[in-house]
Amino acid sequence: MQKFKVLVTRKWPDSVEKKLSEKFDATLNLADIPLNEEQLKEAMLNYDALLPTVTDKISNNILAVENRRVKIVGNFGVGFNNIDIDSAKDNGIVVTNTPEVLTDCTADIAMLLMLGIARRASEGEPHVRNTEWVGWRPTHMMGTKVTGKVLGLIGMGRIAQAMAKKAHFGFGMKIIFFDPYFKNKEIIEKFSATSSDSIEDLLSVSDFVSLHCPSTPETQGLINTEKLEKMKSSAYLINTARGDIVVEEDLIKALENNQIKGAGLDVYLNEPTVPEKLKNLKNVFLLPHLGSATEETREAMGLRVYDNITAFFNDNEPLDRVV
Ligand code: DGY
Which of 95, 102, 211 to mutate to test the pocket of ligand 1 (most atoms within 8 A of CB)? Predict the structure, then answer.
């Protein structure tokens, strides 16, 4: 029986690579070296499916290549702002993503960032490692209490709801959210959450603001100086969504001027480059885009791609079709 040719652009968990190789004529990237635009264009000519991830920029140049063979782009990641969706539509290419399976792990990282920055974990840990810690004292490294505080969620999708659950039931936090598209009363009642009419109102009352919206033309640059000025000076910003939702320069200024108390970030504007100014600040907790990085989740993400392309090649509708 014919085996469809699929190209995996980066190293995937072994178990998923094995499963993929059994079913498809799969080209893997065991060396995990990112492909350049020319290599991706070439792949479009020679494979039935391209399986990129969130760091592969799949532009119109790639999608619109002449004599294309690829029929489906199975993205390894829930975010798909790395793919020119309009071009995929215009060129009749199916695109899928991997929602649901990374919800809890990403919400866990948002909780970790919130706790880590508020309780000064990233400042404290090197003290122990570098033998700078001189012992317990009443005023040593006092942070901010998290339990019982107000958590403001911008976007109320799956990851925000998972964070709301952990924060509300685990830490007794009051949940407020801004999401004009979210109307699920049952969930709102479950977390005793309050819907805010505007982002500005949410920012002015929240002790922690966590971003959970996708990167779209509407949300890019959403958190700028004007918005940061609306936040309490005692408040923290948490970002596990996408770097371009925040104007990074404006955030750095707000942190330098103590306009806000701190930030916990997992995502950046130009990953993996993080501005030196940000790295030099003490009031930030910085992680290298670890939201979904657990063995369980990365495996589940790979299997989701597998299921999507398997459905597609069996002439069924892929579960996670976005185009
Ligand atoms: C995604 O899937 O979009 C995540 O950012 C990867 O962790």
Answer: 102
